[in-house]
Structure formats: C-alpha cells, structure tokens
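Lab notebook, page 48
Experiment: co-folding of the full assembly
Goal: obtain a model of how the components sit together before planning crosslinking
Operator: M.T.
Materials (sequences as entered):
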Amino acid sequence: MPAMTKPTLNDVQDYWNRHPAGAAEVAHLRADRIKYFDERDRQTSLLYPTLAEDYEFDRTNGRRTLELGCGMGYNAQCLGRAGANLTVMDLAPQAVQLTKERFALRNLKADFLVADAENLPFRSEAFDEVFSSGVIHHSPDTNAAAKQIERILKPEGNISVMLYHKNSLWYWWDIVIKLGLMMAAVNYAPKFIRSWLLQRMPHWKDLVMPAGQRLTLNDVVRSGTDFGGLQNPISRVYTHQTSRDLFSGLRDFRFISNFSATGALQDPKTLKSKLIGPIVDRLNRRWGFHLMIRAKK
Ligand SMILES: C[S@@+](CC[C@H](N)C(=O)[O-])C[C@H]1O[C@@H](n2cnc3c(N)ncnc32)[C@H](O)[C@@H]1O
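Observation: model returned without errors.
Model output:
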C-alpha cells in the first residue's frame, strides 16, 4: 500500500484558492458583483442568525484587530462596519482579493495581506483582538498557528476563534456515521456496485480514495467539512478541552457553539425542516459543529 504523503501548506493554499468558502453557492451571480456579495451576505445571515451576537464584533470599535483567514470576507466586513482598526489576511490570494473587492464596494477600509497563520508577519503583542473563523484547523500545523496567535496578542487582548467541534451532533451523526458509511460503501463495495453508485451519484467521485490507499477517519472528516470532498487537504476537530490545550497560554475561556440546521437556505421550507429545524437549532447551541472559543491573554 503506498504511503500517504502529508499535505503541505502549498496544498492548503492551492485548495482554498480554487474553492473560496461560500463562493460556489453564489457562483451563478458572479457577473454582477453587487448581487454576488449581497446574496452571500443574505445566505450567511440565514445560515448563522446569531453570528453578530456570538462574535460581538461591536467590541472591536477603535481596537487593533486581525481577521485571520478572511475567506470571502463576511466577518471582516462586520469588523470593518464595527469600526475596528483592521488588518485582514488569508493564505489564499483569491480570498484576500475577494475581501478587498467587497470592502471597495462597501466603502470600508482595512490593511490586506496574504500570509500564513503558522508564521505571522506581525510583531509580538501587536493586536487587541484576533478573530478567526474556521481557519487554523485546516492548516498543516494548527498548534503552531495557535502559538502565533498568542504571540501577536497584547496582554489583556482577546481571541474569538471558531474551530470544528468534535462533541457535536453534526460530527457524530452526519460526518462519522452517515458520511463514514457512504464512503465505506463507495470505497470498499465490489467494483460493479461502486460503478452503479457513481453513475447515480456522480458527485460522489470526490469521495473515492486514490487507488491502493486505505480510508481513514481523517479522510471522512476532511471530506465532510467542505464541498470539495477528498480534495480538501486537512480538517481537524476539537473539544473544549483540546482547544484549551491548543491555546494553553490564554485564560478566561468561554465557549459558544452554533450551527445552521440543514435547510436554512431552503425556500420554501419543507415540512421536515419546519418541524425539525427549530429543535436542531436549539440542540446546536450546545452541540453545534461550530465551536467558538473566546479567551484572553
Ligand atoms: C473554511 S475557509 C473560512 C473562511 C472564512 N473565515 C469564513 O468564515 O468564511 C478557510 C480559510 O482558511 C484559510 N487558511 C487555511 N490555512 C491557513 C493558514 N495557514 N494561514 C492563513 N489562512 C489559512 C484558507 O485559505 C481559507 O480561506
């Protein structure tokens, strides 16, 4: 069996450059840049109705703030609107470009740069606030990125960092059980069954391991946490305890979890999502897949 090579920072950069988070959902509007960003904002507010409350963007007014891993820039925009003295960065040039464009359209200001969270090009104790949503668990060395965040934070400075939550409904049910079974079926079923499955579900091709490689739980997790399936090089999940360990130089931890019920973007809503959605939303306030870590230096 060939040895699996470890994904590199270049692999991560290349993947996110080709798949900016959220861009696929609004690709049909890309010719009209105003509608493109407006629609992404509308979708984000439906998917995460408690985002502003959870992140408390308003507390950044006038404070030196870093948005680390901006993606398409929705959170950066909230920080810009809150009056943060803002620096915005991402490893993927495409993400920085999209966020710059969004800021120009909205008449907002920030400093922008392409940079690596594992090697931040800022002096120590440069920021009052570091925001980062769904970023460092995709980096080859998440621990190094966490130490860099601690380094650039001023004493008494705060972090709001979202990592994927291991103790969540979505992780155990949707990823480990449902997706795990699907991937086992498509990777280990006899050849004729696999061909039959792929004919019916062509998008499952991104769930097929390279020839000779064994499927692991890591493969299921990375496939279940972005639309690219196995093209997504790395995703990790954290508990309250393992995220405290990750940020061992910080204190006063507070955890908030959320996740959108499937069907948040459905219009009109199905009866199932009308009935089950509100219950799942409530459960997700404790066992949601997005675990926001708030802590102080
Ligand atoms: C799932 S997207 C999240 C984007 C955005 N924060 C959001 O909430 O939509 C992950 C982002 O992390 C960035 N990223 C991954 N590893 C990184 C690293 N080492 N340094 C900086 N950004 C990184 C990717 O380029 C990508 O834009």
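Interpretation: The two ends are 46 Å apart (CA to CA).
Next step: discuss with group before ordering constructs.
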